[in-house]
Amino acid sequence: MKPEVEEMVDLLRRCFPDSWINYFNDFIAHRGANRHYGAACCKLGQCETEEDVIAAALEMLTIDCCKSAPFETPEANRNFRRYMLKGMNKLLGKAFTEKQYLGIYTCIGNGINHQLTIDFIRSGYDLKVLWDSRTERFISMDKLLADLNKLEYRARSYDQMRGGNDVLRRLLPKLIAEQPVVEIHKNSKGGGSG
């Protein structure tokens, strides 16, 4: 690794004190969560610059700041999300909320739009950059977060009553289909409608 990348990886490790790097050069932000289903992990093997490391963290770790549930109890999941939120905010030098990380994950999570991730980094983490300029649509984060909490409650209730493990697989498509879409209109400086 280049020295600048090594410095950024050291910063990552300081931001996430329970982290480690495995044999495959994957950064594991939380040992307990990764043991359950591979959460809190991003690949560093192809990172050549500081920006690449931050992009990998934004694309792969933001889900863990807002909606991952790798543990069996809601309290353990909340503590995990707080740990990830604190670490990401320290890394970025920001104070984003869980709702804002949900918006970030929705737009760039899992590397769905790497160029948008780079634009977001270069803008100084300006959330306005994440608006989809083609459709000018943005998911209502309050509604999505409420539905995810409702889904977690339904899953726990179902598991307690029926002992099933497939509730998430069955309920998630329904919740996604129910998501409202809020249109955002940008104001133009010329006074006309844009």
How would the blueprint of this fold be written?
Elements: H1 3-15, E1 20-21, E2 26-28, H2 31-37, E3 41-43, H3 50-61, H4 63-66, H5 74-92, H6 98-108, H7 114-122, E4 137-139, H8 141-162, H9 167-177, E5 181-183
Antiparallel strand pairs: 1-2, 2-3, 4-5
Helix pairs in contact: 1-5, 3-5, 3-7, 8-9
Task: Describe this structure as you would to a colleague.
By secondary structure, this protein is mainly α. It contains 9 helices and 5 strands. β1 and β2 form a beta hairpin. The longest helix is centred in the last third of the chain and has 22 residues. The N and C termini lie far apart (46 Å).
List keywords for this structure.
194 residues; mainly alpha; 3-stranded antiparallel sheet; two-stranded antiparallel ribbon; 5 strands
Mean pLDDT: 76
- What letter string, H or E per element, gives the SSE order? HEEHEHHHHHEHHE
Q: Measured on Cα atoms, how large is the radius of gyration?
A: 18 Å
| Poorly predicted segments | 133-139, 161-165, 187-194
Helix content: 55-70%
Compute the number of strand runs: 5
Main sheet: which strands, in order across?
A: 1-2-3
The biggest beta sheet is recorded as: 3 strands, antiparallel
Shape: globular
What amount of the residues lies in strands?
5-15%
In DSSP terms, counting alpha (H) and pi (I) runs of 4 or more, how many helices?
9
The secondary structure category is mainly alpha
Q: How many structurally independent domains?
A: 2
Distance between the termini: 46 Å
